[in-house]
Amino acid sequence: MAEYIKRVIEKLEILGKDLFEQINRGENPRMLIPARSLKNVIFDKKEFILRLGDKKIERDFFNLHKAKKFMQTLLVASFAKELLKENIHASLREAFYAMKRTLPNSNENTFDEQDESDSCIVDLEVTLDVLREQLHLNADTKGRVVGDVIIEDRGDVIDWSKLGSGGWAIPSNVEAIEFKKVEAEFVLVVEKNAAWERLHEDKFWKKHKCILLTTQGQAPRGARRLIQRLNQEFNLPVYVFTDSDPYGFYIYSVIKYGSINLAHISDRLGTKDAKFIGLTMTDIETYKLKNWTIKAKDVDIKRAYELLNYEWFKKKHWQREINKFIEKKYKAELESLAGRGLKFVTETYLPEKIKNEDFLD
Predict the structure, then answer these.
(1) How far is the C-alpha of 225 from the C-alpha of 31, rounded, in Å?
(2) End-of-domain residue from the set 70, 104, 138
(3) Quick check: is 305 catalytic?
(4) What is the tens place of the pLDDT at every residue in 249-275?
(5) Are residues 37 and 82 both part of a single domain?
(6) Which residue of 17, 232, 279, 345 is 20 to 30 Å from 8, comparing CA positions?
(7) Global pTM?
């Protein structure tokens, strides 16, 4: 049995024993769960990462408003322990159906919607201070990667450089992946799948000795954890390449600092060394992309104003870029670089940005 499995089972058993002892003392059994509300999320300026504060919520059994949630949380804990003991994994959807049933002599279900079980899984994750994936509960696969890397995954040896046009599909759970060979000088994280395919077809990763990874939009947990592992275990710089708009900027910030919703595990998902390689609003002018910009919508402008108020976007260069977006009222997608020629991104834009270290931090 893997060492991390033993540690997680031990944490689950400690939780169970604590509740059992409360019952034996004639007390109302209760759990204290760190609050995941926005008011309890803080930006650690010293570590440059989002964290949860000290506020906790009480979940007890003898409370009509909390009893069902209490029961649901323990059901998830029991289900996770069985997964770990058998060393098997379940998707979030499978977990919902595996735990869903009608209580005897009632019309009450353990779970009615998957949102309920998903919420309890995160509550258990934050209470035990473990990753959901370490509970063997996985989300859908999202993200692809290519590079001169060989890994071992569940006994299979996989060469990322020999998987054709599709690359390697990044699983939700990358905890057990063992790196056998990593030959790269940096990791290039690409927001858009289409832009990743252009770079892959042009063999950018081979010419520039990098690992090329796409998050296919907002970065999923598996991709964020993989990026962090490559950065921390192999000291690889990470450059993030997104659209020039508030949503692209925020995708970068989530990879770097963590997210508000998952602030409790930012230390295991965030890569604080990550740098933004573009597109910037300044790039639109520098590389003459104005003809291929798109008019910003009201919702885009509103989101830009929200970003201005986030502590992690208070740096002068980010304030400048976001204010420029608000002023210009246009945005540019990664694919807009194709307006200068299909190979412009691989032969001019990215090589120049990397060579000149033209990054935002």
Answers:
(1) 28
(2) 138
(3) no
(4) 999 999 999 888 888 888 899 999 999
(5) yes
(6) 232
(7) 0.88
